[in-house]
Write a structure and sequence with these properties.
The protein is an alpha+beta fold. Helix content is 38%, strand content 14%. It has helices spanning 9-22, 66-74, 102-107, 119-125, 130-135, 153-162, 184-197, 210-217, 231-234, 236-242, 249-255, 268-275, 298-311, 325-332, 335-345; strands at 34-39, 42-46, 61-65, 112-116, 143-146, 169-172, 176-181, 222-224, 260-261, 282-285, 289-293.
Length: 348
């Protein structure tokens, strides 16, 4: 279960919501996203590297002392970066580590917080005109748009700067969506409504050029990707937009900065040598399709699918706001994300 010391109908309902959300790749990919509930001064938040889809079968929640964490945030205490020092170890039977986004959950006053990386939101949030894009569909709802900041304390600070007394919806630029409510039922309904309003028509998946892509993969550490990903290579505009840079944190963490594309006539080895990256999880072959490393983890594959889903919702002239090299470096050099990457490489 969710590892709440006293199981209640509300915690069971949150576990069920976590499973439903975490099992839907249009909402959450791999170990992404998180949920929380505040009970008697304890913030129960998803553990780093765990999967929401497993909320009913594994302990995925960590108990954090809420007021000490909030007090430390006011003092700019560096310990807030991981929130480990604020874990209620007397309740943390499995010695899990709290989500890298624990402080975000802490500063929101509502009892229930749900954070997803839904592709409908991302199709707006990766654009430089995100504020204009969401204004009409979210009209009448208490939402704010939060500029991109690295997950953790920087993002929490950016959220606090935008919060209004009635805010229940956060559109996180280059990141995702947060909804907050005082009951699980209200949070579920709010999430459903926001995703419905932000829905963008999806272009049909394009098939791979089987002969070309199979010939390239033969004798290499790569194999043909799932059918849903091939639009990244076959559709010229999707390939161009995807190759322009990284668009959100989990792409950087699990796929590396940007994506690697081959050039006409190149072998896999030649494309990798030119890129300077020896073993990227994914290789896009323009006009043909996508290859994935045979040993790619489920999280890597899930993030490849997310990228294809987002690209399939973007017009060719979409003005995208790519993460900077400094943004990418901050994510790849961050101890909290190195921990999550290590968990992804550990067999279940």
């Amino acid at each position: 279960m969710m590892q709440l010391r006293e199981t209640s109908p509300e915690s069971l309902a949150l576990a069920a919501l976590a499973v439903r959300v975490g099992s839907d790749p249009s909402l959450v990919q791999g170990p992404g996203g998180n949920v929380s509930i505040k009970i008697d001064g304890v913030l129960w938040v998803k553990a780093s590297g765990t999967w929401l889809a497993e909320a009913e079968t594994r302990d995925i929640m960590v108990p954090v002392a809420l007021e000490p964490l909030l007090d430390a945030l006011k003092r700019n205490d560096p310990a807030c970066e991981t929130s480990v020092d604020f874990v209620r170890q007397d309740l943390n039977d499995n010695k899990l580590r709290p989500s890298i986004e624990t402080t975000m959950h802490a500063v929101l006053p509502q009892r229930i917080v749900v954070h997803v990386h839904c592709v409908e939101t991302l199709s707006h949030a990766v654009r430089s005109d995100v504020r204009d894009r969401v204004a009409a569909p979210l009209a009448g709802l208490p939402y704010v748009v939060v500029p991109y900041a690295r997950p953790g304390v920087p993002l929490t600070q950016a959220i606090v700067a935008e919060l209004k007394p009635d805010t229940t919806i956060l559109v996180l630029a280059n990141h995702g969506l947060v909804v907050a409510a005082d009951t699980v039922e209200e949070a579920d309904a709010l999430l459903t409504e926001v995703v419905r309003r932000l829905r963008v028509p999806k272009k049909p998946a394009s098939p791979a050029e089987d002969a070309t892509i199979a010939a390239l993969a033969e004798g290499t550490a790569y194999e043909i990707a799932d059918a849903a990903l091939h639009g990244l290579g076959v559709e010229a505009s999707a390939c161009r937009l995807a190759a322009g840079g990284s668009l959100y944190p989990d792409h950087v963490i699990f796929l590396g900065p940007s994506i690697i594309t081959s050039q006409p006539g190149e072998s896999v080895a030649e494309a990798l040598a030119r890129s300077g990256r020896t073993n990227p999880p994914m290789l896009v072959v323009p006009g043909a399709g996508v290859l994935f490393r045979k040993d790619a983890t489920p999280a890597m594959r899930a993030l490849g699918g997310c990228l294809a889903d987002v690209m399939s919702r973007l017009p060719a002239d979409a003005p995208l706001a790519y993460l900077t090299h400094d943004d990418e470096a901050a994510l790849l050099g961050w101890d909290a994300e190195k921990y999550r990457q290590a968990l992804d490489r550990t067999p279940a």
